[in-house]
Design brief:
The protein is of the alpha/beta class. About 30% of the residues lie in helices and about 25% in strands. The protein has a single domain, classed as Rossmann fold (3-Layer(aba) Sandwich), CATH 3.40.50. The longest helix has 16 residues.
């Protein structure tokens, strides 16, 4: 079954479209890159797949479901600049948040959840940073923590919004390596970037977002 299928989709906020007429398709184990300048609507498309932006027209399906009914199948990695780095949580606590949808927001985490969080941090190369305050990490390290938070939920579709903005070369390589491992294991991937060269080297297919809605 196709992981993500968009036909003629317009997406935006509060009824106002940001991007219109988009056709996208990505299957399990495949990597799709959305490429375009700032303001073209890449982030809006990513957010529409997880319910953070509205699908205003067209057909949007995630594993045959509407985005609202497929959230548990998705992992979302926001731009690191969208988060408050001063919020008093450790790297390990941020990753553990990725388990809440599985266990419930008001239920305590168990040993298996904490072990999964440690393993996810290790997978992104930050196993020794679990107890460090999130805000004291570098931008690249924070982005890797957010990736670990997404993958600890074992998503079938992973969506990343500009994951390489402000990221050093070491973190970029670490992120790309993890993404290759995840797609090799069958996860589908959609990421947005303004770096056309990186997208062409990494992704199986590239969608150019080159205009905004009127």
């Amino acid at each position: 079954m196709t992981a993500l299928h968009y036909t003629g989709v317009s997406a935006g906020y509060r009824g106002a479209p940001v991007v219109a007429g988009v056709d996208l398709e990505v299957g399990p184990g495949r990597k799709l890159a959305l490429v375009g300048p700032n303001g073209a609507g890449k982030s809006t498309l990513i957010k529409s797949a997880v319910g953070l932006a509205e699908v205003l027209a067209g057909t949007a399906r995630i594993f045959g479901r509407s985005p609202a009914r497929a959230r548990e199948l998705c992992g979302y990695v926001p731009q690191v600049g969208d988060l408050d780095a001063d919020f008093p949580v450790t790297a390990g606590q941020v990753v553990l948040m990725g388990r809440y949808r599985r266990i419930g927001w008001f239920r305590p985490t168990g040993a298996a959840d904490r072990r999964a969080a440690r393993e996810a941090l290790g997978q992104v190369g930050l196993g020794e940073q679990a107890g460090r305050p999130f805000g004291l990490l570098s931008g690249g390290q924070r982005q890797r923590v957010l990736l670990a938070r997404a993958i600890v939920a074992e998503p079938r579709l992973l969506l990343l919004d500009e994951p390489f903005n402000g990221v050093d070369a070491v973190s970029q390589d670490a992120i790309l390596s993890v993404l290759r491992e995840l797609t090799a294991a069958g996860a589908a991937l959609v990421l947005s970037t303004h770096d056309a060269r990186l997208a062409g080297d990494f992704a199986d297919s590239v969608c150019l977002i080159d205009k905004t809605a009127p």
